[in-house]
Amino acid sequence: MITILSGGTGTPKLLQGIIRLVDPADLTVVVNTLENSYFSGVYVAADLDSVMYTLAGIINQETWYGIRDDTFITHETLKEIGCEELLRIGDQDRAVKIQKTLLLEKYPLDEAVDIQRRKLDIESRIIPMSNQNPQIEILTTEGSLEFHEFLIRQKGEPDVLDIKYTRVDPAPGLIESIEEADIVIIGPSNPVTSVGPILSAGGVRDALKKSYVVAVSPIIGNKPVSGPAGKFMQALGHEVSSLGVAAMYQDFLDKFYIDLQDHNQQEKIERLISEVVVTNTNMNNIEDKMMLARNILGEI
Ligand code: GDP
Fold first, then answer.
1. Is the model's pTM score more than 0.90?
2. Residue 177 CA to ligand 1 centre (angstroms)
3. Which residues, 6 or more positions from 30, have their beta carbon under 8 angstroms from its beta carbon?
4. How far apart are CA 191 and CA 198, in angstroms?
5. Ligand 1 contact via 16 beta carbon (within 6 Å)
6. Reduced to 3 states, what is the DSSP secondary structure of residue 53?
7. pLDDT at 268 over 80
């Protein structure tokens, strides 16, 4: 069994490679829920939906959220009649989000997601990191902001001084999915706001220490491939580099995949992590994704 810890952009790219190489039924994906919130009356679990759409083969790969070739009639209409619509949610994507919102009236998040992934014919298990709603606060030079306020309304521009979030209990089955896995893969996701929250859920770090864990660095050179990971790492006092990520994971990590561009960091990282593999981690096409997945899975 393979367990993968995921955010909503980098790790789904790797998932596209992995599902072409293994039986999807052998796969469990544990997904960050730190950014989950209600927008325009619907519950938005952005990373969960990105993982679901990736595994169902319908993800919009231009944006890494929403469904490919979706329409935006509801979004445009809501704006016309005066709704704020902070997020640009497509019509089919909104239907999935409405269903999740309705399911949440009867079921906890993990069960709602399990019902949805079955409807989408996804054979892999998808486990949200928690059924509780964590709170996040991004302290910036413009004041204290909620995640989407920072990223969308303020376009991620304010300088970040600190990031705080509440610790949550892991969802049912999460700890077991780590303890029983032959390999746990931490994909290239934001170490502060995607992987960090999963690691902070009660018991996760201890479970990882007992398992075989590999990770792919989300940083190439001294910046992330996309998103605010660099700004967030800096705010928390971490060096924005693969070495900086290695330091964040060193207490449980067995093997770390860094990019060819970072070969000069290998020796330093080997002082923290016993095995370091230098390879192409830039996933621009399906060949890159399968190559990296094969590299990781080849030895299990
Ligand atoms: P979010 O929830 O949208 O922030 O998504 P994630 O946390 O999953 O992904 C963001 C991280 O993925 C960023 O830190 C990126 O640097 C990283 N990332 C995205 N694409 C790639 C890629 O092709 N290769 C690597 N190594 N990292 C990537």
1. yes
2. 23
3. 3, 4, 5, 6, 127, 128, 129, 174, 177, 178, 198
4. 10
5. no
6. helix
7. yes
Mean pLDDT of 20-31: 97
Return the residue whose CA atom lies nearest to atom 24 of ligand 1: 282
- Could you tell me the distance, in angstroms and rounded to a whole number, from the CA of residue 57 to the centre of ligand 1? 19
User: Which residues have CB under 8 Å from 44's CB, separation 6+?
Assistant: 36, 37, 38, 87, 89, 97
Instruction: Look up residue 50 and give its two tokens.
Output: 């990105």
Domains of the chain: 1-133+169-220+242-300 (3.40.50.10680)
Note the pLDDT of residue 153. 87
Cα gap 281→220, rounded to integer Å: 8
pLDDT on residue 297: 96
- For residue 26, the 8-state DSSP code is G
Distance CA 68, CA 284 (A): 18
240 lines ligand 1 (CB under 6 A): no
Note the pLDDT tens digit of each residue in 137-163: 999 998 999 898 899 889 999 999 999
Return the CA Rg of the chain.
18
Question: Which percentage of the chain shows pLDDT scores above 70?
Answer: 99
Considering only CA atoms, which residue is closest to atom 27 of ligand 1? 218
Q: Is the pLDDT of residue 299 over 80?
A: no
Report the DSSP pairing between strands 125-128 and 27-31: parallel
Q: Residue for token digits 């990736």? A: 54
* pLDDT for res 234: 95
CA atoms lying within 13 Å on the CB side of residue 137:
7
**Of 148, 226, 278, best ligand 1 pocket probe by most atoms within 8 Å of the beta carbon:** 226
